[in-house]
Design goal:
Number of helices: 1
Shape: globular
Oligomer: single chain
Amino acid sequence: MIKKILLIASIVIIGLLLFFNWFKKDTKKHSPPATATYINGDLRIEVNYCKPAAKGRIIFGEEEAGALQPYGKYWRLGANEASTFENNQSIWFNDKELAAGKYAIYAYPGPDKWVIAVNKDWDRWGAQEPDLSLELLRTEVTANNQANFQELFDISFSEPDSSGNTKMILHWDKELIQIPLRKK
């Protein structure tokens, strides 16, 4: 009897693992993975994320208006798993110091400003908010919601200025967010 129970439990667990792996792979067909990389001298920054599409939906706005991403609510900066931000040396992330490491990066969008946050809990799947006790920094940046329309969410970096500073650019729908980054 115990052997039958163990066999059934094993089959159920294997079935759940296979389903979860299939589900993760299937969702990436709709929001493909992407990487944005910035290299300047010995500084390397890499952001891994997934690119959701607008598909005619209201992306950013009030919850009552049916926005996919309501103002003031947690957003993982993409789809599927947590978006990650990895830097190989200490930098200034907008106005905050960020040590070298690999982190989750996410936002709380707003009509005039966005709150961008970095958290130690980077290995996560799904849209749930991370453990805020593991958050390393929060910073505010100005929102530009009059940019040219962008169907797929995109993260990129500007060319470095004469001091080697760059901006990480978040662009989706008509939102364009620029986060200043510089070597420490």
